[in-house]
């Protein structure tokens, strides 16, 4: 179950036969997710700060001016509890906020309001399927805090900038921290954990899941130990990973780096390292602060929280169907393969589209085929989802059903899909005016088949002499006469009948 790594220059050699497995990787992820509330955590400023000019979305509370008092955002508390329940956590009846004291330019108050020893939730887990096995990763806690401002360094991404600019718009945005247990054993497991977590957060609608903009951020704690050892090795924290790929690569790099040190008889330092994407390596940022450095104490301006069981029940009753449950249901209810169900439920929007198409009257198998095939291609190509396209869900249902009923064939339908995807249009009208509907009049089709038979005596003789392949050229002839507007299987069947009757 555990993935093991080999020493030295050896990321390339990892897994090669004959190399002994020396170390087991121990990985835990800490994920910060901005909550999609309307206002900030403790004031009335907007939480959606992205498009605003720097330092225009602030007030005395989020700037930490003397005398300003925080007021708790109830929605943020509810979103955190909802997330915690989705991650199988327990919700204590009492919780409180604490001050985490540290000095940094992006933190005007000189402290961050966070949660220390009485978080909103504890003891959950996230489990998922990876390469045919089940991975179960513990969740230590999900707690609530406030985001900091943002710094922009001129000249360098690290701490050597000549000048820095500060934007306080992000200060005080509700930030949920999801602390994972060190239960992950490889970069692949860590990446998948993050993919699944992001999927759950976006299904819940509490976070937009955007790693690039930093509304969802991930830090990884990585250490190595001899396989089977229960003690944890020296832990290194990695930051600055802005994509799933970066998380995977940074952890892979860090595992190899630490293995190299251990092989030389050195111990990795307990420190924070930053992933530098352009150099494909981690670099030391600072030696790790210990919890005591933050001088946590209870936030005196906020009362402790009493979380009534009634509130927990109410939030539980609002829990949407989560991705794994939804995928399982699509398999049992509609007979999809688990692969199809997995792809269709990748996002809540794509799952909703599938269900809308089926509810609209297209058979599930056909709906899946369209959505995973030609529609997915067009969605990517035009960066437009079917639901927002000119064709829309209703248009796809009509188009798909014309094929199901045999009114038009697949090739025609595909061409129409491409033509109408963005613009939309009256399908029935188009089919009619362009004469696209299939030649389904049996008498007409038979007349055409007979014409082709009469014109191709050699193929007929070949087929009747036992050459199956000769039939194909006759089918081709009929399809040509119908200008592609016939069902090739039906034509084949008809030709067989006519030729055996001769
Ligand atoms: Zn404010």
> How far from one another are the termini?
67 Å
**How does the major sheet shape up?**
9 strands, mixed
Low-confidence stretches: 1-20
Bound ions, cofactors and other small molecules, one mention each: zinc ion
- What is the average of the pLDDT values? 89
The total number of structural domains is: 3
In total, the number of strands is 16
What percentage of residues falls in helices of 4 or more residues? 25-40%
Estimate what percentage of residues fall within beta strands: 15-25%
**What would the principal axes of the Cα set say about the shape?**
elongated
| Quaternary structure state of the chains depicted | single chain
Tally of DSSP helical segments: 15
**For the CA atoms, what is the radius of gyration?**
30 Å
* Structure class: alpha+beta
Describe this protein's structure.
With 502 residues, the protein is of the alpha+beta class. It has 3 domains: 23-310, no CATH class; 342-433; 442-501, Arc Repressor Mutant, subunit A (Orthogonal Bundle), CATH 1.10.10. The chain contains 15 helices and 16 strands. It has helices at 74-86, 187-204, 244-263, 309-317, 323-334, 338-344, 348-359, 364-382, 392-404, 410-423, 427-433, 442-455, 457-464, 469-481, 488-501, and strands at residues 4-5, 23-34, 94-95, 98-101, 111-114, 121-130, 133-146, 150-154, 163-167, 174-180, 216-225, 236-241, 271-276, 281-287, 297-298, 305-306. The strands form 4 sheets. Strands 1, 2, 6, 7, 10, 11, 12, 13 and 14 form a 9-stranded mixed β-sheet that branches. Helix 3 (244-263) links the parallel strand 12 (236-241) and strand 13 (271-276). The structure holds zinc ion. The site of zinc ion has 8 residues, from loops.
């Amino acid at each position: 179950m555990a993935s093991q790594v080999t020493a030295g220059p050896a990321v390339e050699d990892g897994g090669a036969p004959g190399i002994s497995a020396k170390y087991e990787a121990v990985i835990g992820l800490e994920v910060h997710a901005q909550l999609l509330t309307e206002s900030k955590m403790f004031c009335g400023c907007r939480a959606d700060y992205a498009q605003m000019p720097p330092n225009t979305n602030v007030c005395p509370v989020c700037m930490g001016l003397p005398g300003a008092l925080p007021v708790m955002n109830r929605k943020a508390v509810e979103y955190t509890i909802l997330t915690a329940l989705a991650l199988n956590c327990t919700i204590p009846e009492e919780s409180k906020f604490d001050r985490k004291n540290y000095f940094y330019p992006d933190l005007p108050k000189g402290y961050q309001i966070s949660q220390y020893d009485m978080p909103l939730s504890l003891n959950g887990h996230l489990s998922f399927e990876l390469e045919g096995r089940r991975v179960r990763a513990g969740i230590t806690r999900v707690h609530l805090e406030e985001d900091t401002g943002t710094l922009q360094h001129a000249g360098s991404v690290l701490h050597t900038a000549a000048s820095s600019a500060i934007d306080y718009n992000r200060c005080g945005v509700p930030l949920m921290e999801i602390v994972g247990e060190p239960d992950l054993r490889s970069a692949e497991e860590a990446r998948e954990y993050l993919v699944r977590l992001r999927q759950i957060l976006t299904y819940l609608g509490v976070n937009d899941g955007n790693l690039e903009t930093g509304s969802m951020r991930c830090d990884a704690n990585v250490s190595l130990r001899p396989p089977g050892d229960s003690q944890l090795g020296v832990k290194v924290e990695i930051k600055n990973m802005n994509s799933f790929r970066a998380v995977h690569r940074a952890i892979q790099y860090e595992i190899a780096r630490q293995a190299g040190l251990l092989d030389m008889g050195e111990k990795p330092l307990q420190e924070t390292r930053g992933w530098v994407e352009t150099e494909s390596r981690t670099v030391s940022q600072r030696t790790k602060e210990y919890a005591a450095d933050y001088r946590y104490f209870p936030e005196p301006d906020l009362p402790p929280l009493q979380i009534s069981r009634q509130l927990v029940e109410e939030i539980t009753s609002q829990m949407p169907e989560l991705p794994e449950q939804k995928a399982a249901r699509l398999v049992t209810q509609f007979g999809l393969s688990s692969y199809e169900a997995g792809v269709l439920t990748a996002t809540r929007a794509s799952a909703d589209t599938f269900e809308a198409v089926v509810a609209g009257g297209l058979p599930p198998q056909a709906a899946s085929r369209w959505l995973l095939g030609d529609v997915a291609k067009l969605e990517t190509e035009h960066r437009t989802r079917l639901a927002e396209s000119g064709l829309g869900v209703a248009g796809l249902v009509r188009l798909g059903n014309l094929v199901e009923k045999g009114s038009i064939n697949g090739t025609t339908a595909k061409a129409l899909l491409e033509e109408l995807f963005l613009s939309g249009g009256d399908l029935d009208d188009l089919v009619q005016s362009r004469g696209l509907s299939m030649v389904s009049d049996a008498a007409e089709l038979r007349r055409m088949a007979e014409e082709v038979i009469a014109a191709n005596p050699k193929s007929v003789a070949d087929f009747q002499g036992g050459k199956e392949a000769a039939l194909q050229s006759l089918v081709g002839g009929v399809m040509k006469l119908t200008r592609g507007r016939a069902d090739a299987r039906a034509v084949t069947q008809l030709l067989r009948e006519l030729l055996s009757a001769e």
